[in-house]
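Record type: ASSEMBLY
Status: queued
Input:
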Amino acid sequence: MMQNIKDSFYMELRSRLALLDPLRTVWIAGTQRPAMVVEENEFPDSTEPQPDAFYVAWQEVHASGPEALLQLSCEIKYHTEGSASLSYQDRCRSLAQLDDELLAICRPGSAALQDFTQLPVADLSQRVFWTRPELGAVELVGRALSRTAKLRVFSFAEAA
Amino acid sequence: MMSLAKRGPMQNISRQVRAFFAPVNRVTNAPAYFDPAQYSAFDVDAPPAPWIVAGTVEDFQRTSLTGQAAIACGAKGAVVNQYRTELAAEVAFNFREWGKLQLALSCGSQVMNVLVELGTPFPAPSGGVANNPVGLLAGSSATELVVGIGAVAGFAVGDLVAVDVDYSGATGFVGTGIAAAYVKDPALVNNNPDYVRRVTFNVGRVRGTSANSLLLAQPLPGGAPLGNAQVQKIRAFVEREGGSFFQEWSALFVVESETGAKIFYHYPRVQNAKNGTEAHSRLANAFDAWSLPARLTALPTVDANDQEQVLCYRSLVPAAGAAVL
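Status: finished
Output:
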């Protein structure tokens, strides 16, 4: 169930990003895909995070109530350097666009809970929902501006 | 096999309560009914007619004021049955958004459209002698006001306008599509032809112009203007403590659970119960965020299925896969 929650959240945000900004993509292991990446799903020896992409990192998990409402803490990290053609002076605007896109793809704050280990994907007749992202302070790393957004993702642990 | 009787999705976990209102036909006393069979998938961002969006409300609180009495008998006065008395209910909440509809429901009486004045007349709290209206031409609709090539220049993008017919001297409810006030005596409104436009709910904001028409940002709440309607610019809305008119609306409050369920609270007829005091909360420890309170009394309607008198309906559209009991 835990993996279904993670997968459903990620796939929903990835699909929304592809729709919102089809040009925001990354190349990973020779494949181009929407710039929404789950760190724990990638090869352990993956290269450094790429700029202008969202990286999802799952944190602690809590369960509450008799139906075990699962609460998964999640961080979404991203950074940007701006563009070389503008001598990287547009990095602040570039970060603002990343902020806007993250806030946009997180609304509405729910999606269908699905099992992506099957083909076709199985609808589990349940929902996964999440809080609005809280955008942390901007950090300056070299010439890059980076930010970490935090949110909490919920669903019931009840067996499908 | 997938379970379709889960208990988790039976919980109501929601972010907000959304409010919608529809006018009651005051002449026929006909409310607007919400039918869950037809609107179980009610889209809160694009509600079906005649529901008008009133935004998110806070501190939503229903109060049943219906009494119960007991029939007791025997030497020990044991309760053998009960019956209901004094059918009554209220619903209270705070609007986060301020607008003409919200003011009307908060104050419960007429909300005046303050018409742009002709020159600088003697000051009047609800507006003085108004600028001349502009007549509408054929082809006008709830979103486009055809005023003619010459008149378009008199309006600018962003202008607020009121659109309705001239007051004709009749007594009764006035306002196209929505009863905005009740005229008891033409002399009380000075037989003023602008009076209907002073109170009408057919108000809007100009978002653009064409060669001969004004394009509105939102459709007129009362629907397409009548053929002899005219348009006047307005500056503000004003409501008064002390008005004698009672607004009456059909109300619908929608709670969308994150688990997929929808809960609808439907009051076919509500009137203002009491004027409230603005509530405010601190925003970033620097601002006061003011909300507009409303306290509404429910009036009864008769349910055609069993002739019961009803004040409020609470409907549940269960989440997919949720147990039903």
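Annotation: Chain A touches chain B through 19 residues (CB under 8 Å).
Annotation: The first strand of chain A starts at residue 25 and ends at 28.
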